[in-house]
Amino acid sequence: MAGVHGPAQMPSSPFQAETEGGRLVLRFAGALDTPTAAARWEEAHRAAGAGAPLTIDAAGVTSLDSGGAALLVSLARLAGEAEWREPSEAAPRGALERFRNAIPAAPAAPRPKPFQPLTNIGAATLGRLRALGGRMAFLGETVLATLRLLPRPWRIRWAEVLRHLDEAGTRAFPLCILLGTLIGVILAFQSSVPMRQFGAEIFIPQLVGISLTRELGPLLASIILAGRTGSAYAAELGTMRVNEEVDALKIMGLDPVAWLVVPRILASTLVMPALTMVMNVTGIIGMMIVMATLGFPPVAVLNQLEQWLSVQDLAGGLGKAAVFGLAIGYIGCQAGLSAGRGPRAVGDAATGAVVGGIVALVVLDGIFAILFFRLGW
Amino acid sequence: MVENANAEAVLTAQGVAMRFGPRTIFKDVTFEVRRGEVFVILGGSGCGKSTLLKLLIGLMPPSKGEIRVLGGDWSALEGEARRGLLRRIGVMWQSGALLGSLTLAENIKLPIEAHTRLPEAARALVASAKLGLVGLDDAAERLPAEISGGMLKRAGIARAMALDPEILFLDEPSAGLDPITSAGLDALILSLARETGTTFIVVTHELQSILAIGDRCIMLDKDAQGMIAEGDPKKLRDESEHPTVRAFFRREAM
Question: What pTM was computed for the model?
Fold first, then answer.
């Protein structure tokens, strides 16, 4: 730590240790301030810890701050019992008295927490179950609120839905275009090496097209959604909860789920097919660029795609994407509305939304894979 | 109480003005604060009290004018010199502004660690003394989220006092507190001012509090874009003819 009290001050209050009739007398004089106390701390404690009964003679101290008073009190504590000679001047005497009166008589011993593994495991399990219960209850509330709104679609806050569509959708387009093109280029390049060995480069469009539309397009778009939008939902709703805005809505007779959650989930569900489509198209364009460098004109590539890519591939991917969007929106809102209080809680909620969203979409993707396989899509 | 009107000035503001873009918050604010007094900056909402406080503690430079704190001018101070001056003032923020991840004792040790070379044992002693001074000795190991608003403010004062500052700035100490807690806080400020000789600069609009603790005050006004009164708050209450000052002190509608 840099010296902040000007150029390295020499301690202005050297203390002297003397022995008077079997007692150790530590005599302080002059200005006993924080830099002095810091500089002489070790030395004074070594002297006081010698074992002889201690007298702290502060009669000559002319000024005393908290650091100086801490030194004197600490010395007295070290000796167990000390005889005091108070400062003769009023100001340091008052300062010393205030300091001694303010600290608790004995240092507060930190309470060690007993180690109880069984209790801890039980508490953790109950906590998890309770969180799961909360999640299920929230799912129920969301479904109910949506059902209540369905026959009265004009009561959905469409302006809010549009705002969220813009934030989750149009503003994510540049990122999707960039990512989609790059993925298309990378996939085409990576597959061109093994394909060339069999002279099968003409099948690259089929490979890239199918993996993009069925799998990578929806997956990458939903990772973008989880990172950009899921976390934003959680942080936004978490902050609203901290500011008691959610409670205010309840008291005004507005259902926070219908008011806050439904527009967001609706937006994240509707926006996903669009993001995925952007991903698919730009990915195919990226692949076409690579194919052109390999000597295949766009017409040949498009012919291949037309021949091999079915509407089912595309529709399956887009449908999957919508379900991913629903899950990510739901998890983001749930994390936000169940956030604790305080700035750290909002951060935790945002992290939980992203992690929970990505885990959920991988699990869902697995389920879809099995489903599509069984259906023969 | 200022027995000596000629006591040394610890803070002076000379022709201070503040503008945000085209909007003038205040202009021509001139006053001085003497050592050992409780000086109150008062005024209604939106008059620039908190902005003035930010200028006084050097968080922002004024658009015009000069501010000297303990002889130093924030805009001319950098590095070690600035740290040296920062060490001599303390600020209690409106909401306490304690770090949420640290216990109260750790919060108070923080400035001591930053500015001195006291060993941990000394820091712990000073922290417990400061907490004891504001009556929070049994809450040392609690987190800010676990204590009430009044306790947060007191802990904020304890942290502001950690380095025995010469000037203590308090932003709205009694805002949001019940009358009893608020009166307790006023009593604490008064006893600290009298016993430690610390100069207090308090920004507030709580009438009771102003009359209880203020030795002198200035009043800012939004419409006048500046100071409209200066002096002993009790005298202002009884004698001022300014319509806004009368409205403020006598709770009259204007």
Answer: 0.70
